[in-house]
Amino acid sequence: MKTVVIMKRTLFDGEISQNSKTGFLSATDLFRSGNSWRISNKLHPIDMTIWLRQKNVREFIEALKEELNETVKISACGRGHHTWVHPYLFIDMALAINPKLKIQVYSWLYDNLLKYRNESGDSYKKMAGSLYINISNKSEFRETLIWFAKKIKEHLNVIDWQTASEKQLYHRDKIHEYVSLFSDIVRGKEQVFDISVKRADEHVNEKYKNRG
Questions:
Q1: Sign of the C-alpha dihedral, residues 204, 207, 209, 211?
Q2: Could you report the per-residue pLDDT of 1-26, keeping only the tens digit for each?
Q3: Which site from 93, 174, 206, 207 is most exposed, i.e. has the minimal number of CB atoms within 10 Å?
Q4: Which residues face 16 on adjacent strands?
Q5: Which residues pair with 158 in a beta bridge?
Q6: Over the stretch 47-102, which tens digit does the pLDDT of each residue have?
Q7: Please, how many CA atoms are within 13 Å of residue 8, restricted to the half-sphere of its CB?
Q8: What are the two backbone dihedrals, phi and then psi, of residue 54, each rounded to the nearest 5 degrees?
Q9: Domain 6-109, second-level architecture
Q10: Alpha helix locations (H) across 135-188?
Q11: DSSP result, 39-88
Q12: Which residue intervals of the chain bear CATH 3.10.260?
């Protein structure tokens, strides 16, 4: 089961919340950031409630619900809550704010950030299981797991995983995989970490060598 994490993405120079499990994004954040961008560009802000009431928008939402056979909008309930929307509806909203964003928004939404976030979360559990099986003193397991998590974070220069890049999350996933592998055949956490990082670095550098 995937752990629900509210990730932070950047668009219109503002943070947009995204649910890692459902992929839904905060329309509340989008209109807040988007309207700040519009005002700074001498454009009138757009009221989300009014925009959602437009006939063509309502028809689009109904068509999405019918096509996807699922809810595409979860309305806010109470102050400080978010209105969450399916990525398809989010695209329509973003393009209403700035029609020139089409290519950027598609690329932004369908990168591998969610995929690698969830995969690295799953691989963390596998790493933890492998470390527990192979550690001789079980009372040291918690301290050892924390040590690996801290070292990986430092190696990848990450402060908060919720704001980590696609590449950093993919890199973490690979380190987890190699720690799971080498903890079974190498003794000493420093040795396991060093060889795992070396192999993961090689793997990631090869994958991203032509991508900057």
A1: negative
A2: 456 778 888 888 888 998 878 888 99
A3: 206
A4: 9
A5: none
A6: 999 999 999 899 888 888 887 778 889 887 666 688 999 888 888 898 889 877 76
A7: 9
A8: -60, 145
A9: Roll (3.10)
A10: 141-155, 166-182
A11: HHTT-----HHHHHHSHHHHHHHHHHHHHHTS--EE---STT---EE-HH
A12: 6-109
